[in-house]
């Protein structure tokens, strides 16, 4: 099943497997085949500190498996933005689907963090990983959940592994509606799975295209602008 993306800052439709782009917009992108989120709106007006750039996931947005899932993304953080910056998902409240965010409250003395987790409709279950300064470099983030574990990987390595004995706190059945939102930087190879991938499986395709018939793959946004 193809899945599509709608850019809110350009009139473009993107497919989960391919990208179809208005040729006049190609100058907005880098040659490394990724999507860039910045401070400029569609009128080239500079907005600070926020950015309106967001990708709306259309064509029946997916609802991830509530028992087990995996989310993967490459990001290249560029200085800017303020407060919570959505990468995948929508915020980090009790009604948020599985989400990944970047948080850097400049001037508060705290290091930047990757925030990951979900809401269950009544409470929020989000965790913070201090990530330090990551500007101007590509990093790979993967989050996996099964009934009793949630793990975050950075560049294929386990950074936090949380276990719980009560598996009833399932994510809310809320669709994945957007990528980005107050995020300043680049994004590439966003993948979502209805299974909890192992570390070896994550590393296997971290730098390569994943086969579309890979078990459990439900969304694959390659950001490939060559089509």
UniProtKB/TrEMBL annotation:
TM helices/strands, residue ranges: none
Family matches, as Pfam families: Laminin_G_3
SUPFAM superfamilies the UniProt entry points to: Concanavalin A-like lectins/glucanases
Gene3D superfamilies, A to Z: 2.60.120.200
Keywords per UniProt: Disulfide bond, Signal
Domain LamG-like jellyroll fold: 67-200
InterPro entries, sorted: ConA-like_dom_sf, LamG-like
UniProt-recorded name of the protein: LamG-like jellyroll fold domain-containing protein
């Amino acid at each position: 099943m193809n899945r599509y993306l709608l850019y809110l800052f350009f009139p473009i439709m993107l497919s989960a497997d391919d990208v179809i782009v208005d040729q006049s917009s190609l100058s907005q992108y880098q040659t490394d085949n990724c999507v860039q989120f910045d401070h400029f709106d569609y009128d080239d007006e500079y907005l600070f500190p926020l950015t309106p750039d967001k990708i709306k996931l259309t064509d029946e947005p997916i609802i991830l498996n509530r028992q087990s899932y995996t989310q993967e993304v490459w990001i290249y953080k560029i200085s800017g933005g303020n407060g919570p910056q959505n990468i995948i998902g929508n915020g980090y409240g009790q009604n948020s689907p599985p989400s990944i965010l970047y948080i850097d409250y400049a001037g508060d003395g705290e290091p930047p963090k990757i925030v990951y987790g979900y809401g269950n409709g009544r409470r929020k279950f989000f965790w913070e990983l201090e990530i330090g300064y990551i500007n101007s470099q590509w990093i790979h983030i993967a989050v996996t959940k099964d009934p009793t574990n949630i793990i975050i990987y950075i560049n294929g390595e386990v950074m936090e592994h949380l276990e719980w004995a009560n598996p009833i706190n399932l994510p809310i059945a809320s669709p994945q509606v957007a990528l980005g939102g107050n995020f300043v930087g680049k994004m590439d190879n966003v993948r979502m799975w209805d299974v909890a991938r192992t570390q070896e499986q994550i590393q296997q395709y971290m730098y390569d295209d994943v086969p579309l018939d890979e078990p459990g793959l439900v969304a694959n946004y390659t950001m490939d602008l060559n089509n």
